[in-house]
């Protein structure tokens, strides 16, 4: 009989009730806890979920989306990472065709992705992740399958050809088949696209005797009992259920181990406990009290239960109280007498510890273009009002078909699929309250789907993979600086100049580490930003440096299998979808063209000169030296050009040791050097003197009041403002960069656009619009609201308008509280 072990220290203050046990076992369990704590502390996880307005688009449309970021252990809202990357990937080419960055605030990142007109018909993936998540395999990224359809290249339905050999895996429960011990063998059959296939079959032994028959229970998954006998090997023969040809395919079962453990888990029969049955055939220890085996249950890296029993018993029963197991996937691991993991099993716990979200339309049916009012009510698991932020999409069921009958939700992703390897078909099925078979189906999934959070060998060995990508609290620039001989330029000084879209400039200074790596972060950049990086070598020796910026490297992806993408539209529905969507896209294009024509008709009588943001504080300098090829000739630094060309400015010395003084700039301590600026931003003389003269457009000199306005008390010696060609609003960043520099353009955050939908008079007929001339309205997405916030009473009302289509509208709301409680809900409204 197993007995509960005391767990004294639980990471993140999760406590487990305990009873006394032997010190050696207590030490082992506490060692596991401490190692898990260290592993999670040094290698914490993040989770991302992405809601989109729909699953099917036409090139040229906009994907409206909302990202949610969570801590990977307790599922609290992640407020550390503030940059969410979203990649649009062509699944067949394994190619990123578009990337955007969304700004996350308190774990929420609304935005949109405009689809280029040139994209071909096909299956696409949306990958969403943070910089920190790039330290982990891509399996940790959020992934969503989308379909794009073009009028000139319509898709065909995915179909499994008859008599196609299924891909079948056989997985002994707990890990191994062991001689003489009865256990269960789970199996999963899928097509070449990953779709689960219903199969049936039988198992033969070496003598070709039938041992048992079997058939799948759920989406190609099932299990059967097997007790291996001596001198026998086993082969399963499988066929597709209903195959008229009755073609069977052979599959060898895993090899039988002569000695070992078998673990069988019952997570279905008892509402209060999970039963774990352990058998083994190892020799009894000489000292019956010496050999102990240990069962550890952990959820997302937190040990929630531990028990131990004597090795002298050949079979044992452990009962785990359900009230100790939080929602989500729990990993059960059996350790032998040497504290080596020998058997594992996953179980799914669903205590419904989540938000209750209700969408209540004021009217079940409305007329075309009539206002639709929807009351949103959110309560916590105890039924109390909850303040939450949700994203809500309203789409035309005919125009915006889903690619799955039970698609992923924020609940199914957070609790289930984010902790599993591989694709889970119809993930929403396992958390749908209306599905009475969800517990059995989830148990089949747990027996056949792999765990991906960590392995005990890494935890026990203290193996922490190298951390390459930082946590981002803003846009971050990272890269490498090397010498001409390809060796890292250790401790090299760097200057970063950022030319923002609003014409403002920002100058930053930094230094590479001993490996030549550099990072500058917490930047608040939007849209396209010009980036100029200058290596500031000693005494101007910077031209042998090579600067590489990670952000300009195209992301790489590896899609091993084009994901199963069920297409639920028939040919007629596809034609209607394309017709209506393209009509609305053409209306939007015509509106843009009309605006362009109106703009072209405006007569411009005078050109207003664009102000130079680099001179924003003074507009007109006291003196200016414009740089050209003639005066740059032979100059090592900008001071060589300024020398003798500006009255009142004295330059002494030469090269990088030159000194400068503006006439009259003295105090009791002697001459005062001026304050230096680069494109209107303060900078040290040592930094600015390294700027190649070929990159300088002009130098402004300020004295008196202008210098005081520019530099305050630091302007007592005057001001010298160096204006670079790259800092000019008109600079072309495609020009060849000077050696030792890097000039490029990067995308910052994608500005969040407001979803536009026409507003119609509540009492109007189907063709009288208040906001302009009547035009056809057959939008696929009627409303998108990414930041719907409930009040202290847990309620909020959302209002939008129906289109011209007589159809059914699907409403989907998903969201979270600040404490990480999530919820989702659906509703429908008829338009007649």
From TrEMBL:
SUPFAM superfamilies: Porins (SSF56935)
Cellular component GO terms held in the UniProt record: cell outer membrane
Range of residues in the leader sequence: 1-22
TonB-dependent receptor plug domain segment(s): 624-719
GO biological process terms on file: siderophore transmembrane transport
Membrane topology field: Multi-pass membrane protein
Domain Macroglobulin: residue ranges: 47-131
Major location (coarse): membrane
Recorded GO MF terms: endopeptidase inhibitor activity; siderophore uptake transmembrane transporter activity
InterPro entries documented for this protein: MG2 (IPR002890), Plug_dom (IPR012910), Plug_dom_sf (IPR037066), TonB-dep_rcpt-like (IPR039426)
Alphabetically ordered keywords of this record: Cell outer membrane, Membrane, Receptor, Signal, Transmembrane, Transmembrane beta strand, Transport
Localization, UniProt: Cell outer membrane
Record's keyword annotation contains Membrane: yes
Pfam families registered for this protein in UniProt: MG2 (PF01835), Plug (PF07715)
Organism domain of life: Bacteria
Family that this chain belongs to: Belongs to the TonB-dependent receptor family.
The protein, known as: TonB-dependent receptor plug domain-containing protein
């Amino acid at each position: 009989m197993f007995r509960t072990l005391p767990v004294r220290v639980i990471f993140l203050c999760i406590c487990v009730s305990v009873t006394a046990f032997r010190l050696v076992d207590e030490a082992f369990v506490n060692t596991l806890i401490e190692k898990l704590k260290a592993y999670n502390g040094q290698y914490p996880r993040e989770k991302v979920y992405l809601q989109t307005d729909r699953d099917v688009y036409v090139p040229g449309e906009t994907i409206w989306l909302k990202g949610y970021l969570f801590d990977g252990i307790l599922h609290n809202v992640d407020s550390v990472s503030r940059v969410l990357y979203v990649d649009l990937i062509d699944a067949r080419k394994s190619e990123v065709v578009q990337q955007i960055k969304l700004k996350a605030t308190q774990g929420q990142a609304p935005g949109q992705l405009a689809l280029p007109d040139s994209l071909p018909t096909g299956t696409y993936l949306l990958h969403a992740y943070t910089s920190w998540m790039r330290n982990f395999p891509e399996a940790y990224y959020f992934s969503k399958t989308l379909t794009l359809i073009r009028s000139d290249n319509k898709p065909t339905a995915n179909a499994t050809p008859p008599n196609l050999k299924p891909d079948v895996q056989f997985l002994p429960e707990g890990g191994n088949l062991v001689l003489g011990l009865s256990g269960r063998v789970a199996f999963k059959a899928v097509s070449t696209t990953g779709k689960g296939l219903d199969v049936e079959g039988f198992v033969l032994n070496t003598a070709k005797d039938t041992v048992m028959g079997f058939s799948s229970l759920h989406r190609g998954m099932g299990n059967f009992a097997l007790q291996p006998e001596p001198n026998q090997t086993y082969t399963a023969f499988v066929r597709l259920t209903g195959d008229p040809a009755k073609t069977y395919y052979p599959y060898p079962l895993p090899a039988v181990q002569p000695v070992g453990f078998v673990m069988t888990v019952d997570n279905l029969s008892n509402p209060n406990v999970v039963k774990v049955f352990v058998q083994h055939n190892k020799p009894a220890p000489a000292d019956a009290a010496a050999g102990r085996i240990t069962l550890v249950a952990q959820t997302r890296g937190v040990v929630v239960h531990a028990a131990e029993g004597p090795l002298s018993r050949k079979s044992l029963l452990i009962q785990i109280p359900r009230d100790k197991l939080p929602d989500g996937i729990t990993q059960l691991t059996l350790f032998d007498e040497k504290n080596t993991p020998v058997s594992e099993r996953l179980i799914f716990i669903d205590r419904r510890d989540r938000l209750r979200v209700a969408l209540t339309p004021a009217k079940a049916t409305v007329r075309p273009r009539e206002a639709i009012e929807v009351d949103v009510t959110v309560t916590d698991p105890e039924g109390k009002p909850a303040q939450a932020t949700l994203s809500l999409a309203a789409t035309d069921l005919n125009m915006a078909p889903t690619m799955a009958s039970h698609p992923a939700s924020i609940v199914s992703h957070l609790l289930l699929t984010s902790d599993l390897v591989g694709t889970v078909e119809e993930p929403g099925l396992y958390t749908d309250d209306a599905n009475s078979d969800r517990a059995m189906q989830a148990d089949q999934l747990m027996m056949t789907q792999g765990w991906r959070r960590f392995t005990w060998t890494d935890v026990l060995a203290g193996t922490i993979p190298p951390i390459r990508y930082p946590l981002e609290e803003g846009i971050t620039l990272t890269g490498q600086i090397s010498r001409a001989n390809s060796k890292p330029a250790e401790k090299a000084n760097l200057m970063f100049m950022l030319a923002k879209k609003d014409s403002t400039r920002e100058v930053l200074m930094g230094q590479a580490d001993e490996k030549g790596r550099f990072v500058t972060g917490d930047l608040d950049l939007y849209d396209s930003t010009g980036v100029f990086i200058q290596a500031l070598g000693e005494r101007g020796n910077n031209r042998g440096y090579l600067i590489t910026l990670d952000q300009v490297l195209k992301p790489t992806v590896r899609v091993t299998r084009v994901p199963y993408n069920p297409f639920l539209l028939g040919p007629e529905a596809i034609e209607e979808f394309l017709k209506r969507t393209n009509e609305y896209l053409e209306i939007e294009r015509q509106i843009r063209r009309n605006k362009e024509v109106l703009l072209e008709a405006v007569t411009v009588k005078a050109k207003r000169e664009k102000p130079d943001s680099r001179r924003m504080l003074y507009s007109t300098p006291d003196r200016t030296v414009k740089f050209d090829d003639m005066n740059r000739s032979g100059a090592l630094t900008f001071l060589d050009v300024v020398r003798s060309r500006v009255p009142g400015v004295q330059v002494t010395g030469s090269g990088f040791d030159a000194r400068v003084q503006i006439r009259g700039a003295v105090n009791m301590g002697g001459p005062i050097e001026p304050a230096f600026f680069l494109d209107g931003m303060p900078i040290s003389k040592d930094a600015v003197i390294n700027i190649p003269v070929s990159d300088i457009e002009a130098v402004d000199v300020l004295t008196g009041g202008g210098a005081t306005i520019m530099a305050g008390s630091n302007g007592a010696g005057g001001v010298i403002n160096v204006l670079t060609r790259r800092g000019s609003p008109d600079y072309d960043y495609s020009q060849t960069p000077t050696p030792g520099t890097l000039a490029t353009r990067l995308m910052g955050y994608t500005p969040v656009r407001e979803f536009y939908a026409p507003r119609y008079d509540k009492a109007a007929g189907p063709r009288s619009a208040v906001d302009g001339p009547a035009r056809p309205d057959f939008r696929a997405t009627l409303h998108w609201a990414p930041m719907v916030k409930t009040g202290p009473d847990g309620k909020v009302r959302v209002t939008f308008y129906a289109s011209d289509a007589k159809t059914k509208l699907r409403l989907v709301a998903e969201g979270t509280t600040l404490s990480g409680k999530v919820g989702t809900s659906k509703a429908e409204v008829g338009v007649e």
